[in-house]
Structure formats: structure tokens, C-alpha cells
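Next comes the chain:
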Amino acid sequence: MNWPRSLSVALVALLLSGTAVRAEHEGKLQILLLGDSTTIGSVCRVVEPNGMNLEDVIRALLAAEKDLPPTNVINQGRDGEYIHGLLTGGRYDKEIAKLPGIDYVLIRYGLNDINRREEFATNFPKDWHDLLARLRMDFPQAKLIPMTI
């Protein structure tokens, strides 16, 4: 099973597990994807420009579950991104913090962090903590789902 499908199946299972679904923004469940190239799927987008991307796969799998509300899946993955860069480079404040009505945040980092973050063993866990704290502050009702490589 490839990672987008396994992630999507896990999300469906989570949503069906009894967690309250609010769908407060335009009547749609808001799912935010944060991460690096493995989230945005840049290679897939080049190889198959008209193919289904991670956000499309998640949306389709959730739509197949008739008892769930419609979803809006926002893919904010970026090539080369790492947690510390997201938080200190201004992108988080400009593009993430102000998103409306986020219900779920799926977060996948690690590949770039290991190569770009100084003192990785010490700083990577701190970076995760800082990102999760910031997401909790900006989206207090959202369910956060962190993943690493």
C-alpha cells in the first residue's frame, strides 16, 4: 500500500471513530496537509500533471463514505521545506495561520529536517513541539496528526 492511500484510509478510520465532525467552514470538513515534497507530491505532479494528487485521493476516499460531510483538502506541502524553516521563514504566518475552520491537520516532516536542521537530534523534537503548539494556538479545535518518515 503506498503512503497516500494508507494515510487516506487512516484518516477515514479516524473520522469514523466517533470524533465530532464540525464542518463549520462553508459546510465542508477542512483538512490541512502540511509537509515537504512527500506531501505536495511534486514528482507525481510532474510525471502525471492531470493525475490524482494526495489531496484528491483523500477527498475521493472520504466522499465514498456517505455518512461524512463534504471535505475541502488543502495541500500546503512544499518541496524542500522543514519545520524550522516553515516557522521562521514567514510562510506559516502568511499562508497557514489564517486558514479558516481547520478540523484536521496532517503533518509530515523529516526528510529535509535531517539534512538542513543544525543539531538535528536536539532541535527536531523541539521544532515539532513548536509547530504543534502553534497549530494548537491557531486551530484549537483541530485534531493534529503528526507523522515522520
